[in-house]
Amino acid sequence: MVDHVVAYRLRAGVSGADTVPVARAIEDLRHAIPGVVSVRTGVNCGPEAYRGGYDWGFVMTFQSRRDLIGYFEHAAHLAVIPMVETITEDLVVFDLEY
To answer: Are strands 56-62 and 36-43 parallel, antiparallel or unpaired?
Structure first.
């Protein structure tokens, strides 16, 4: 299993309502991409001092590293990227295999 954790800094002026269609598109990838076990999106609820300005993101769990690699080039994933880029200005990725 691999957890693909992505944290974003939202662009100035982006509201919680603006994240809803993007979150839905990310969550829908579970049904479009082989090997996706689960997807969770949401607001960073950690202590402000540790957020580093990253306020929103998702965790996507894959069955294997091979499935994660396939996700990066999958057409459904590539189609969501422009939506994400309209509301975010920076991101950090952390992949955890277990």
So the answer is: antiparallel
| Residue 57 Cα distances to 32, 66, 80, angstroms | 19, 22, 14
CATH number of the domain within which 55 lies: 3.30.70.100
- Domain span at residue 55? 2-97
Three-class DSSP category at 55: coil
Helix (H, G, I), strand (E, B) or coil at 14: coil
What is the pTM assigned to this prediction?
Answer: 0.94
* Residue-wise pLDDT tens digits, 2-60: 999 999 999 999 999 999 999 999 999 999 999 999 999 999 999 999 999 999 999 99
SS3 47: coil
